[in-house]
Amino acid sequence: MSLIELCVFGCDIRVECFDEQAASFLTRIYRLFKHPIKKAEISYRIARESSSERLYIARNGAGPEIARDWGDFIYKFDKDLTIETQKLRPDLYFVHAAVLALDGYAIALVAPSGYGKSTTTWGLLHHGLQYLSDELAPIDITNMRVHPFPHALCLKADPPSGYRLPTGTIYTARTAHVPAGCLPCETVRELMPLKAIFFLRFMGEADAPVLKPMRNAEATARLFMNALNPIAHSADGLDAAMEIVSRTRCFELLSSNLQATCELIKSTFLSTFSIPNRN
């Protein structure tokens, strides 16, 4: 049995893993979360069904969730982990978003699944930005800072040429996971002040990406739609969404070619906040 201890958003998590391959996967995917703990707030037990490839994920002694393959295992464990930590941190406003850093500020890419967040994140890491998360933005509204969630970046499709995945990538039947140690950039592990939000939608048929500033009302509605724990906050999370939008710059981005999209995001951020482009 392998024991894995993690600290996620200040929450202590213990994983008892009775399958060595599962332990290896979790260790590589959550390497930057590994931390000795005193008392687990969330406990998991991972075991494999002896007669098949199916894995059991049991939390806090409850009935197990069954994962049918490795991709399903990583997805279900990650989903349960993020839901349970949200319950322990209702003070944070969780948004379905990728987060990157540039010149000491955080940039959020907000969109539902399948809209190109992770691919755009992977591209931006090759253009001088740093990694915080590819899918989760926990925002502390009191100081407008974002907690990092630097698990392995997950891609559902191969990226375009010029953005090849590195040696060390973990492949499953449906996904590719790039551990933090394999990323082409620095991984940020401290809270970062949120400065800009790009609401992303991939338009593969477009000749070039299109970007426009958003009014507060429209941006608030889009942010609220992508909130993961709105009812933990006053007015069911609408007040928090309004506060976040009022203290950041928001843009709608119809993305297309990955290189052009990344260059547009970076140049827009630098010009909006009058930051010299040193590259």
Contiguous uncertain segments of 5+ residues: none
Computed Rg: 19 Å
Sketch the major β-sheet.
5 strands, mixed
Dominant shape: globular
As a percent range, the share of strand residues is: 25-35%
Order of helices and strands: EEHEEEHEEHEEEEEEEEHHEH
Number of helices: 6
User: Helix coverage percent of residues?
Assistant: 25-40%
Spatial arrangement of strands, main beta sheet: 1-2-3-4-5
Distance between the termini: 48 Å
Report mean pLDDT, rounded to a whole number: 94
Question: By helix and strand content, what is the structural category?
Answer: alpha+beta
Number of strands: 16
Description:
By secondary structure, the chain is α+β, with helices and mostly antiparallel strands. 25% of the residues lie in helices and 31% in strands. The chain is built from 6 helices and 16 strands. It has helices at 20-29, 70-88, 117-124, 216-225, 238-246, 258-272; strands at 2-8, 11-17, 42-48, 55-59, 65-67, 93-102, 105-110, 130-133, 136-140, 145-146, 153-155, 170-171, 176-178, 192-202, 210-213, 249-255. Strands 1-2-3-4-5 form a 5-stranded mixed sheet, covered by helices on one side. A 5-stranded mixed β-barrel has the order 6-7-14-10-9. A 3-stranded antiparallel sheet has the order 11-13-12. It is globular, with a radius of gyration of 19 Å.
